[in-house]
Specification:
The complex is a heterotrimer. By secondary structure, chain A is α/β, with parallel strands linked by helices. Helices cover 50% and strands 10% of the residues of chain A. Chain A is built from 23 helices and ten strands. In chain A, strands 1-10-7-4-2-3 form a six-stranded parallel beta sheet, sandwiched between helices. In chain A, strands 8-5-6-9 form a four-stranded mixed beta sheet, with helices on both faces. Chain B has 13 helices and eight strands. In chain B, the strands form two sheets. Chain B has a four-stranded parallel beta sheet with strand order 2-1-3-4, sandwiched between helices. Chain B is an alpha/beta fold. Chain C is an alpha/beta fold. Helix content of chain C is 31%, strand content 22%. In chain C, the strands form three sheets. Chain C has a six-stranded parallel beta sheet, with helices on both faces. The chains are: A alpha/beta, B alpha/beta, C alpha/beta. Chains in contact: A-B, A-C. At the A-C interface, helix 2, helix 3, helix 4, strand 1 and helix 8 of A face helix 1, helix 2, helix 6, helix 7 and strand 9 of C.
């Protein structure tokens, strides 16, 4: 149970974000850049269509046989000398990591970026257990210095501008001269982290793709901190969600291409690191031990539903949030969740309960921009509606956590009345008559209308409905 | 474009609830545009709503009952023309799933297959050629998200506008970004929706157009309402109404 | 050792039926990426130079001399390398008499860490080839040429045989049969290390090498 004083409320959190002009400007500029660059990467519509279909098919088919592929991954990893552990919950995963670190007397850890580790709140857990866990990806390093969580899954410090980062470095890094020059700031981080890589007892990373066929863990990065974290320290612990497995090595290039072009609009990243085991016979470097921790944390529940299973196709590219008009205006922190943006609207309610996080489900206009760019074809708006339906369900059971918990008596009554009237032609005509004659009398200042009229002038029903006018004009009825 | 032999002689018209109550002239304009091409247009009274507001809110049962009532009003096989990409998209894409396992599933699927958005029909089936009878005007076009992404309507409206000699379509910045209506989203998350509507209104004003056009009544109400609140001089029109106004004989 | 979590997770995943999704994955789109052999070097070079990789063009006979000349001109004082290969032998011959010191990475990292991190200016490695469409070098570190040579020193000198450039990553792994045996580490390198984490502004030389210099062996015309 978290120690939060109040439950997450997207309306409140987003109102604060909307009022922050600097934040809005930072995000708007960032999203505009990311979306136009991505469009340039996928300029050929036929290639996009076919590559995306391939990516979707690979991911969908993987999920159908997920247990087989995971079992094979484990077997091949073990053959390669990678130790494999499974964790149902984040608590278990944290305990496994701690046990491995304690066994080696490790007190200093360097970390590559891993969203799974965010789910685990791993850094906090390790700190509480006396182990320093330092983020080495520049964006993660920045927010860790400032005691924040990521606001975007690919660019965690996207909400900060250089002035804010300069002040932060000046305040928190010893011997750092104040500078707003990006190259100089980067050089400071390089200097600090280089020492940390050198001294670390263990390195922790995520996994972008885990290949079952060969027992290979693939990591995508531009900075080099991932390779540093996974090759320099004597112990490497890799964390992955159960959905990150791909069946065959040849499945990797199409997914890798979709990922880099969708996430950062690059045809390829600086490094693509394929880890097939610890230091091999005769090798002079590489970790002596490699551990893989496979985490469930609610994913098997998502997997149980044939439609919601598509949530697990996600390759964590971030394109959905880059194109989301809501995310672009409020940024990631307003979601008060590990995963923000459209994918977060699917993952978070399913892991925490559609009743607890109905606020996120409502916060979408269903514009579909996300589904349009998802490289693995997750039908995000459709699944949001599905989850809304689960949240409002009158009864029954399903795989979905918190089903029916967000059904409100007043709202369900309103929809029942709405349905009763609009499904009866004569009642509808009568209601239309009332609306057109009396609609202007409804006070625009009362809820729910007031939510509208705060920002817009009130819509006025026409004096006569179209059906009335059509009667007069003699337009044929059925 | 289809040849004369596959042109229907009669079509149904599903006006949508927002058009019926807020934009009746737009609805009638759509019918007149079709009638002018020699079609018999049947407009069953007592039709109401495609069910989308309830469906999107998670009240599928209530949506289905309203949808079922619409199925009954359009017997036969004629195409059903709809002056809204949002509603046409709802019916085409979601009625089959909404009625899965229901006794009316077959009827619903058939109905979904008959639905065509108005500009899709004008361009793709009728191949209309419009003659502009109005004086020069600058307009800007807002494509509704659902029309674009649920219904696949993208080039038809701009093709129709391009046929009007005295109409200049000025580009709209971030035109494909949502205007913030989203049905009940506007009421549940007014601040964000308001911010989106405001950005869209600002883009409309910057476009230099005198009239904002859209094919979706919800978007029009939303952006038009925001423009009015900003004291803007830009007018709003539904595309069907605009096309009829510009091309009807005086 | 029985793992309860494992069993429970796999059991949950095995329950229930999911409809088999329509469509066999169709890799035709990957095959269409083919870059013609005669265009591959140019394509790779263009793509890599766009992300600030540097190129020294040379040939099979002269490459080691070229590397020496480059190192001396750039003020590189020391280069770590992996002894025991043909390329290493060529390098050793060529650098005899040079003020540039060759540093042998011939002991485990535990004994070499300080040297690698703080006392060499560059690391030299061979490569297995390259990929043309996106740019990129293929490296399979070996006992002779350890992993950190291409990562820790601030400059990475990479020897590329232009005749061993594949059209794409997908083609490379298929043509070379990687699925049959993967080494403990394989990697693609496409340029010097970089980040855009500060205001989405590109900055080079973050944690990996600040410079990637590709020593490209072109066939004699």
């Amino acid at each position: 149970m978290s120690a939060e004083p109040r439950p997450p409320d997207f309306r409140r959190a987003s109102a604060a974000a909307l009022a922050d002009g600097q934040l809005r400007a930072n995000f708007r500029r960032a999203m505009d850049g990311l979306t136009s660059k991505r469009a340039a990467q996928f300029a050929d519509p036929v290639e996009w269509r076919d590559l995306r279909a391939l990516g979707a098919a690979i991911r969908a088919r993987t999920l159908v046989r997920l247990p087989e592929h995971l079992a094979r991954l484990e077997a091949r990893c073990r053959e390669n000398g990678i130790a494999v552990r499974w964790a149902e919950t984040t608590g278990e995963a944290n305990a496994i990591v701690l046990e491995i670190l304690r066994r080696h007397g490790a007190t200093r850890v360097v970390k590559g970026k891993s969203m799974v580790s965010e789910e685990m709140h791993l850094n906090d857990f390790l700190e509480r257990n006396g182990i320093e866990s330092l983020e080495s990806d520049l964006g993660e390093y920045i927010i860790q210095l400032d005691g924040e969580t990521p606001s975007h899954i690919i660019m965690p410090a996207i909400h900060k501008n250089r002035g804010q980062i300069a002040k932060l470095f000046g305040r928190r890094i010893r011997d750092a001269e104040y500078t707003e020059d990006v190259d100089a700031l980067t050089a400071i981080a390089r200097r600090v982290l280089r020492r940390k890589f050198f001294e670390a007892d263990a390195g922790i990373s995520g996994v972008n793709f885990a290949v079952a066929e060969t027992g290979t863990l693939c990591l995508v990065e531009n900075e080099g901190n991932g390779r540093m974290s996974t090759h320099v320290p004597p112990v490497h612990i890799a964390l992955m969600g159960i959905e990150k497995v791909v069946p065959r090595l040849e499945d990797v290039p199409p997914l890798y291409s979709l990922l880099t072009r969708s996430a950062t609009a690059q045809p390829i990243t600086t490094y693509f690191n394929m880890i097939g085991g610890p230091r091999g016979p005769g090798e002079k470097d590489g970790p002596r031990e490699v551990h893989l921790v496979i985490l469930d944390n609610g994913r098997s529940r998502m997997h149980a539903d044939p439609a919601l299973q598509a949530t697990l196709r996600c390759i964590r590219c971030g394109a959905c949030m880059n194109h989301c008009p809501v995310y672009a205006r409020v940024g990631g922190h307003a979601y008060e969740a590990v995963y923000p943006g459209p994918i977060g609207k699917l993952v978070t309610p399913q892991t925490e309960g559609v009743d607890r996080r109905a606020d996120l489900l409502e916060a979408s206009s269903l514009c579909g921009a996300c589904g349009e760019v998802c490289p693995v074809g997750i039908p995000i708006p459709e699944l949001i509606v599905r989850l809304r339906t689960e949240a409002a369900a009158p009864g029954g059971t399903s795989a979905v956590l918190g089903r029916g918990g967000a059904r409100h008596r007043l709202e369900s009554l309103a929809w029942r009345v709405w349905s009763a009237v609009l499904s009866r032609p004569r009642l509808y005509r009568a209601a239309a008559l009332a609306a057109t004659r009396l609609g202007r009398l409804v006070p625009a200042g009362l809820p729910p209308l007031s939510a509208w009229t705060r920002f817009r002038s009130a819509p006025r029903p026409a004096r006569r409905s179209m059906q009335e006018l059509a009667d007069e004009e003699g337009i044929p009825d059925a | 474009m289809t040849d004369a032999s596959s042109r229907p002689r009669a079509v149904y018209y599903f006006a949508t609830c927002l058009v019926d109550l807020f934009y009746p002239e737009a609805g009638l304009s759509g019918i007149r545009l079709l009638q002018r091409e020699g079609l018999r247009v049947v407009f069953p009274r007592g039709q109401s709503c495609c069910g989308q507001p309830a469906y999107n809110s998670g009240y599928a049962g209530e949506a289905r009952e309203v949808a079922r009532a619409q199925l009954r009003r359009f017997p036969g096989e004629e195409p059903v023309v709809v002056p809204s990409g949002s509603c046409a998209g709802m019916i085409r894409r979601h009625y089959p799933g909404l009625f899965a396992g229901d006794p009316d599933e077959g009827v619903a699927r058939a109905f979904a297959g008959r639905v065509v958005e108005l500009t899709e029909f004008l361009v793709g089936v009728l191949g209309v050629r419009l003659a502009d009878r109005g004086s020069p005007v600058r307009v800007t076009w807002h494509p509704s998200c659902h029309a674009l992404r649920e219904c696949g309507v993208d080039r038809e409206p701009t093709e129709l506008l391009a046929q009007l000699a005295n109409v200049t379509v000025t580009p709209l910045a971030r035109d494909k970004e949502c205007c913030g209506f989203g049905g009940t989203f506007a009421v549940r998350h007014p601040a964000i929706s308001g911010a989106m509507a405001d950005d869209k209104a600002a883009a409309v004003e910057e476009s230099g157009a005198g009239i904002l056009l859209s094919g979706d009544a919800g978007c029009l109400m939303n952006v038009g309402g925001r423009l009015a609140a900003r004291g803007s001089r830009v007018a709003t029109r539904h595309l069907a109404e605009f096309l009829w106004e510009r091309t009807r004989e005086r | 050792m029985p793992d309860g979590s494992r069993e429970r997770i796999l059991a949950r995943l095995s329950r229930g039926s999911s409809p088999e999704p329509a469509g066999e994955p169709d890799f035709a789109v990957m095959a269409r990426r083919a870059v013609r052999p005669e265009e591959r070097y140019a394509s790779l070079r263009r793509a890599m130079e766009a992300v600030r990789a540097e190129f020294l063009e040379t040939n099979e006979d002269d490459w080691a001399g070229r590397v020496r000349a480059f190192a001396e001109a750039e003020g590189i004082r020391s280069i770590a390398y992996g002894p025991g290969t043909d390329a290493a032998g060529r390098l050793e011959s060529s650098f005899r008499g040079s003020p540039v010191r060759l540093v042998r990475y011939d002991r485990p990292i535990e004994e070499m860490k300080g040297t690698l991190f703080d006392a060499v200016d560059a690391g030299f490695t061979t490569t297995r080839g390259g990929i043309a469409d996106t740019g990129g070098l293929i490296l399979w570190p070996t006992p002779e040429e350890p992993r950190l040579l291409s990562l820790v020193p601030p400059v990475h000198l990479a020897l590329l045989d232009a005749a061993r450039i594949h059209g794409s990553f997908w083609q490379a792994m298929r043509d070379e049969g990687w699925a049959h045996r993967m080494p403990p580490n394989a990697l693609l390198v496409s340029g010097p290390s970089k980040t855009a984490d500060i205001e989405q502004t590109l900055a080079y030389g973050v944690h990996g090498p600040k410079r990637l210099v590709v020593v490209a062996i072109l066939p004699r015309a």
